Amino acid sequence: VFPESSLEVTGVDFLKSQNTREHHTDGYSIQSLVVRRGQPFQVQVSLSRELRAADKLTLRFGIGENPMKNRGSLLSLKPEREDFNGWKISMAERKGKECLLSVTSSPNAPVGKYNLHVKTGSNIYKPENGVIYLLFNPWCEDDVVYMANDAEKEEYVLNDTGTIYVGSAYSIYDRPWNFGQFEEFVLDACMYLLDKSKLSLAQRRDPAHVSRAMSALVNANDDSGVLLGNWSGNYVSGTSPMDWIGSVTILQKYYKTKKPVRYGQCWVFAGVLNTVMRCLGVPCRCVSTFDSAHDTEENLRVDVYLNDKGEKLNSLSFDSVWNFHVWNDAWMKRTDIPNGFSGWQAIDSTPQEQSQGRFQCGPCPVKAVREGDVYLPYDAKFVYAEVNADRVYWVVKKVNGKDKYFKVGTETQAIGKNISTKAVGQNRRVDITQEYKYPEGSKEERMSMQRAYSFLRPSGLTPRSGYASTTQRISANTEPLVPKEPVTKTGLHLEIMNTEPLHPGNPLEMAITVKISAPGNWTVDLIGSCQLQYYTGNVQANLGTIKETITLEGPSEMQIPLKIAPDAYMKTLSSLEDEVLILVTAIAEVKETNDKLTKETSMRFQYPPITVQMPETASLYNDFNCAFIFKNKLNVILENCKLLVEGLGIFKMTTFELGDIMPGRIIKSEIVCTPTRLGEKKIVAKLISNQIKGISTEKGIFITE
């Protein structure tokens, strides 16, 4: 009897175009096959002869450096046999020497890079480019990241462009951002981060562990991660945080150098973390909170110190209120905590506080923040304080040569406003505050607050600056459990607004309105100040103050103008590397009743727009022209102008050096575009100069076959 001719594999076809279409992974710019877990994919195996009943054919999937069966890092799958660790394989079709195999990975398989080898008898075949990337699967009902709504998956997993909301509660504006999760090397950068995270195989199954690890690795603080944070105003040794328009350049540079990229601030960290999560298959969105508290002592209070002119003092505050702060929500079912807390989970990669010894934050169930269940993992106390702290104002005065602190106001509803994210499938802002908080003053809010307070330790009202700890307690009584807006005897109320557009180079014209609702004659002392500050609340310049005593016959109101000449601020504006906001603070005191009230408002400068001229549609691989037009409508020269433009699937990031643009001058920059991908694509442009940091715009184009 002749010996059986041994069975050998002559080739493996990963059927990339069919598999990636079915797995919603056809966007990734990568040679290898990318599939999602818990969903079948097919591979075609070519053999040296027809398969017989006695032949043994095995697919082996290995993950990590040294795959072993007993560690679960090597999966050995035989067609039609029982499943192995939740993986299944079946013979879909046999034709002569060809076998079509269908492989279904477990819906809770570890995500990462697998190597496929095919074993026949004692022969092992290693296909070239035999790497398969396995991702989380929001389309699979048994995956913990399952998301039922298709439009939401389209936005939170597949959309590679978006908007991050910044500015201030008074003037929110949108900053376009290219996430670019499908661009070259981005998936590899994410896989490198997964390996670097040292997560165990079991932890790689769970998006809670993965998202927590990624929140640590997107900042460079303790693990030489992706981005180095810098809020100093000095960025000569890197790229200013204002100069990025997307995550792609950052992740590509990081993957190439394996060194932290310089520099990031919160929206950059959030933009990159959003890219990483979407790239790995976890639905994710960028979330902006206006007037976000950074409460270092978890006492749900942020103290703001003012001098007797009403100007905010940086030096005394440990805590801060950021004009805005951006983090992310990732979508998942939490299997590690009691039921009822699945859905959106807050994660934050901006290095603010250490959690378990590392700069990481989350995942924190958004529902836990709303319900006051701040004991739940991870970092719920910190996130709760960011959106629920009180703001207490103190005036510091010298009395007999010593600093004394006088409380001039408490705001209980000022923190955590206008929580915003981009709408699903549309370019507009949607307010999601009600997902994080019950309506102010509602019964639910009161219960939630009592719950949270029972796990936190809100302090009595002593000022908490380093200098203040020596002074006696200002009042022995602690705050009531649910403080209300201060009700004054006279119904004193303050409003701050701008009366003319705030264009750089023009006078800043603002007004403070004092209202009194109680009948009678009242004398009001008003002090007002105007300062420039970074979005982190850090004051950069004092521009001017007013001090007036007015008499009002209630009920009535009076508008007091506050005007700042261009010379008072233009020099500072031109010398700063960051975008600044105009901070106006007002303190009013009614002489007859001692009622005191403090109010602050931050406003942003207003800029002329960039216009983009290009066709509404174009066809694949056919060039079209795109022009960027900017007219300097301001009364100042814009120095050292740079135009940054990027169009994913159309052209790579490009910078135009435009020099100085005189008032009234029009600049036109053109670029030839070659679309390489189908569907709705976006072009993003940003203009930066010494005087102005943040003019950006975006325009969509539809690419057809």
Question: Given the C-alpha coordinates, what overall shape results?
Answer: elongated
Q: In the CATH hierarchy, what is the architecture of the largest domain at level 2?
A: Alpha-Beta Complex
Radius of gyration: 29 Å
Q: Which topology of the largest domain does CATH recognise? A: Coagulation Factor XIII, Chain A, domain 2
Mean pLDDT: 92
The low-confidence parts are 460-485
Helix percent band: 10-25%
Largest sheet geometry: 6 strands, mixed
Query: How many discrete structural domains?
Result: 4
User: How far apart, in Å, are the first and last alpha carbons?
Assistant: 60 Å
Instruction: Supply the helix-strand structural class.
Output: mainly beta
CATH class of the largest domain: Alpha Beta
CATH superfamily of the largest domain: Transglutaminase-like
Protein name: protein-glutamine gamma-glutamyltransferase
Active site: 266, 325, 348
Keywords: Acyltransferase, Calcium, Metal-binding, Transferase
EC number: 2.3.2.13
Keywords:
Immunoglobulin-like, mainly beta, protein-glutamine gamma-glutamyltransferase, 6-stranded antiparallel β-sheet, elongated, 14% helix, 705 residues, single chain, Coagulation Factor XIII, Chain A, domain 2, 11 helices
What is the gist of this entry?
The chain is 14% helix and 41% strand. The chain is mainly beta and 705 residues long. Helix 3 (186-196) crosses helix 5.
What does this structure look like?
Belongs to the transglutaminase superfamily. Transglutaminase family. The active site is at 266, 325, 348. Ca(2+) binds at residues 388, 390, 440, 445. Pfam families: Transglut_C, Transglut_core, Transglut_N. Its EC number is 2.3.2.13. With 705 residues, this protein is mainly beta. It folds into 4 domains: 9-135, Sandwich (Immunoglobulin-like); 153-455, Transglutaminase-like (Coagulation Factor XIII, Chain A, domain 2); 492-604, Immunoglobulin-like, CATH 2.60.40; 610-703, Sandwich (Immunoglobulin-like), CATH 2.60.40.10. Strands 2, 4, 5, 8, 9 and 10 form a 6-stranded mixed sheet that branches. Strands 19-18-17-15-22-23 form a 6-stranded antiparallel sheet, sandwiched between helices. Strand 27 and strand 28 form a beta hairpin. Helix 3 (186-196) crosses helix 5. 45% of the residues are buried.
